[in-house]
Write a structure and sequence with these properties.
197 residues, alpha+beta, Aminopeptidase, five-stranded antiparallel beta sheet, three-stranded antiparallel beta sheet, 5 helices, 8 strands, 30% strand, disordered C terminus, N-acetyltransferase, Acyl_CoA_acyltransferase, GNAT_dom, GNAT family N-acetyltransferase, acyltransferase activity, transferring groups other than amino-acyl groups
Length: 197
């Protein structure tokens, strides 16, 4: 392991992306099949811009999308992390990821997303963490449910129906008297601890 991990699990670690990762990250971001629910494949220049955007996030937010690396062989498997997003007019913190097809259906997305949720709650003290995807993206919906998220609302974006999942940081909920997950239907009125992008 050449870089100290930002987040570590049994099988993977997450580290900061850098421009040397462009070719590896392009294996997922420039793959039309992998990006079918994301609006299409990225050009190589757009992959570089994606990495640059996340390096800026590390500086401004202390989080972003990180490189997903398998411990056993240092294989680059994609990205996963936490970003600020505007969803239906509200600022939220969201867990997102992109996994190279060769590494799909092995539990890496779930393992990485769960690690990000724990990091968001324990270290970043985020009161509620979300994840959203298109309604027809069943694989991503299953990941959200596996890490304890529940559906909070549906909304339209770019001509597609999206589903928003969320889970409350229970420690934070005790501190700020936030609503129970079953009653949480919208991110509205939730105040972010970070400024908008």
């Amino acid at each position: 392991m050449t870089t100290n991990p930002k987040i570590e699990t049994e099988r993977i670690y997450l580290r900061k992306l850098n421009l040397n990762d462009c070719s590896d990250l392009a294996k997922v971001l420039s793959d039309p099949v992998s990006m079918i629910h994301y609006g299409g494949a990225f050009s190589f220049d757009k992959v570089e811009q994606w990495i640059f955007k996340n390096t800026k996030r590390y500086e401004t937010d202390d989080y972003g999308l990180w490189a997903m690396i398998r411990k056993s062989d240092d294989a680059f498997m994609g990205d996963c992390g936490i970003t600020n997003q505007i969803v239906d007019g509200e600022l939220i913190q969201e867990i997102g990821y992109h996994v190279i097809r060769n590494y799909c259906n092995m539990g890496y997305a779930t393992e990485s997303a769960l690690a990000c949720k724990i990091h968001a709650f324990k270290n970043l003290k985020i009161p509620i963490i979300y994840s959203y995807t298109r309604v027809d993206n069943l694989a991503s919906r299953r990941v959200a449910e596996k890490i304890g998220m529940i559906e909070t609302k549906r909304f339209m974006s770019n001509g597609h129906e999206q589903i928003l999942y969320g889970v409350i940081n229970k420690l934070s909920a005790q501190q700020v008297d936030a609503p129970e997950p079953a009653t949480m239907v919208s991110p509205a009125s939730q105040t972010s601890h970070r400024p908008a992008r």
